[in-house]
Each structure stands twice: as structure tokens, then as C-alpha cells.
Design a protein that fits this description.
The complex is a heterodimer of chains A (116) and B (116). Chain A has 116 residues and is mainly beta. Chain A is 0% helix and 54% strand. In chain A, the strands form three sheets. In chain A, strands 2, 5, 6, 10, 11 and 12 form a six-stranded mixed β-sheet that branches. A four-stranded antiparallel β-sheet of chain A has the order 3-9-8-7, with no helix packed on it. A two-stranded antiparallel ribbon of chain A has the order 1-4. Classes of the chains: A mainly beta (116), B mainly beta (116).
């Protein structure tokens, strides 16, 4: 079965520290990978995506993620977080569906809490 | 407008009532997705349109849920005979291309449905 797992429901971290939010998926076929961020009382916003090519992708706000096919992972990282990074982060994987479409499956989300 | 809009933002319904949730995608966006997001969970796929064609409705939880996009722009998600388990945030997202993985999705703010 195809699934997306975000291993940490909550990640507390101090300001200016590095952070990694983990995402693993299960699939035997090629997929497309995304990270979205949801700030309080706002809609989901695309942070970055992996479609093909270089396995290290850079997104907005200084975030980056690395696709590891052998480990079926797509972990999100930032070398130095700010208070404003406090938000909910969702990993999403688009799996192929019938008719050539791709249907996104989201993880449960990881709440990043940045302390001063 | 510049983004995806949804109305109403909040809806309270008595069990058994019918509700209609509206989504206005970004102008010119071909693809439109509906998701259901329960408290503390990630968005779950409901259905997907390409222009006016509903290409995938595998995520609709029951035949009480119905979605349409008759002119390929505005979409309505209708829930008949609402039940308490329908309480959730309903998200709409649109994307420019025929398949969402290229550009990523743009999400609306959601409609929070509470069924009493």
C-alpha cells in the first residue's frame, strides 16, 4: 500500500539551531515529492518539490530537502531556524493513479515550534 | 483575486442538513482538487477535476458527497444529510497544468464545517 509517514508530530527547537523534519514513503513506482507549510490561520503553501534530477532541492525561506530513493525518504532541513518558521509542515507524495493522473497523499504533519 | 478563495469560511450545520461549499480557483488554472482535513491530520484527497471533467473521485467517503465544476472554473462540493463525522476543514487547491506535480498546488484557506 502507498503511504506517507512523518515520524515526528512535534519538533521543538531553539532559534538559530538547525532542524530536520523527517518524511518517509512507501511505493514501488516513481513518485513526485513535496513539502508544504501551513502558518497559523493560513492556507498551505508550497515550500519545495522534487520531480527529477538533482536529489537536493532548495525551496523558499532557506529550506532544502534531499530525496533518497533507496531509503524512500524526503527529509526537510534548515541550517538555522527563525521564530517565524513556527508552523505546521506537511510532506506530500504524488502517486500515479488511473488515467495518467497523479494523486497527492499527505503525511499527518509535523509541528515545528521555534523557541527564542 | 490573486489566490484561491473558498466560501463560506465557517459553516455550522445540524445533522441531516445539506451543505454546499464553494471554491474559486486561480483564473486559468486547469486542475482543481478537493481535500478533507480532520483535526490533527494531513489533508486527504477527495476528488480531482481537469477543467469541467471529474477525473478521479475515489476519495469521496460516501455517495452523500458530490462535487461539480460545470464550467471549468468555480467548483462546489455538496454534502447531503451531513453527519458528525463530516466535521472537518475542506480544502480546495488548484494548479495551472493538467497534472499538479509540475507546478505544485495553490491552496485556499479552507471551509471549516462543524456538524452538530
Amino acid at each position: 500500500a502507498q503511504s506517507v509517514t512523518q515520524l515526528d508530530s512535534q519538533v521543538p527547537v531553539f532559534e538559530e539551531a538547525p532542524v530536520e523534519l523527517r518524511c518517509n514513503y512507501s511505493s514501488s513506482v516513481s513518485v513526485y515529492l513535496f513539502w508544504y507549510v501551513q502558518y497559523p490561520n493560513q492556507g498551505l503553501q508550497l515550500l519545495l518539490k522534487y520531480l527529477s534530477g538533482s536529489t537536493l532541492v532548495k525551496g523558499i525561506n532557506g529550506f532544502e530537502a534531499e530525496f533518497n530513493k533507496s531509503q524512500t525518504s524526503f527529509h526537510l532541513r534548515k541550517p538555522s531556524v527563525h521564530i517565524s518558521d513556527t508552523a505546521e509542515y506537511f510532506c506530500a507524495v504524488s502517486f500515479p493513479a488511473s488515467g495518467g493522473s497523479y494523486i497527492p497523499t499527505f503525511g499527518r504533519g509535523t509541528s515545528l515550534i521555534v523557541h527564542p | 483575486g490573486a489566490g484561491v478563495s473558498q466560501s463560506p469560511r465557517y459553516k455550522v450545520a445540524k445533522r441531516g442538513q445539506d451543505v454546499a461549499l464553494r471554491c474559486d480557483p486561480i483564473s486559468g488554472h486547469v486542475s482543481l482538487f478537493w481535500y478533507q482535513q480532520a483535526l490533527g491530520q494531513g489533508p486527504e484527497f477527495l476528488t480531482y477535476f481537469q477543467n469541467e471533467a471529474q477525473l478521479d473521485k475515489s476519495g469521496l467517503p460516501s455517495d452523500r458527497f458530490f462535487a461539480e465544476r460545470p464550467e471549468g472554473s468555480v467548483s462546489t462540493l455538496k454534502i447531503q444529510r451531513t453527519q458528525q463525522e463530516d466535521s472537518a476543514v475542506y480544502l480546495c487547491a488548484s494548479s495551472l497544468g493538467r497534472t499538479e506535480h509540475r507546478g505544485g498546488q495553490y491552496f485556499g484557506p479552507g471551509t471549516r464545517l462543524t456538524v452538530l
